Amino acid sequence: MGTLFVVATPIGNLSDLSDRAREVLRHCPTIVAEDTRRTRQLLASFGGSARLISLTEHNVSRRIGPILEMLGEGDVALVSDAGTPAISDPGYQLVEAAHQAGHTVRPIPGPSAVIAALSVAGLPATPFTFLGYAPRSAGELSRWIDRWRRSGQTVVFFDAPGRITRTISAIAEVDGTIQLVVCRELTKLFEQNVRASAAEILTCFENGTIPEKGEFVIVARSVPPDDDVDVDTLLRSRLAAAEGPNQAAKSVAAETGLSKSDLYRRALELRAEDQSG
User: What is the pLDDT of residues 247-273, one digit of tens each?
Assistant: First the structure.
């Protein structure tokens, strides 16, 4: 039975491809790739000539069976567009299937955008949580920020041009003091790593100090949750100051890190109680 090699490839600088990774990619007759065009360019850089099979989020369910058959005949390498496979791409399903089928699965470690960003962030990495890509919709983005900003953990996430400024703006609106490290184009020619508060980072995007171009990895430091918060007192003080339930919930959410939607429901209950009393 063949072995499935999970091979990390460069996230930008081709010099980061290890000798061991190059040897495995030369050795394996079949390479499963997220984007065969990008992988073909990588192979061309050192004369590799393996057969390439695409594995994407759209075809993963129908490709696993044939790839397992190939593993029955020989070794197979799994690569992603860049970095370590199975972290933010469909590769984990193949790894799981290979384990279940009794194949040996071996990592060929190397570049990872998540670990590279953590290493230059200067923020505690134990514990940290990788969140994948920031949500696209504004409503989900707000809930997503609420979930992690009072977790007490460092978080890492990806974002894309066209959305990154909106994401940073949403974080700054909730709490402009949150510490962020924005890593742009890691290991590439125009690499940029900027550490500042969310409010300061937003200014950098708005004035062009950080161009909204390239690939982004963001590291953020949340703060520990406050279990002693008297939510009702905070909401009542806001309501007494003539704030509506929505604005009261928004203000208390920014102050405590609690869910705005939960606070809004409680604010409505408190207002009804006060009006009935």
Answer: 888 888 767 767 777 788 888 988 888
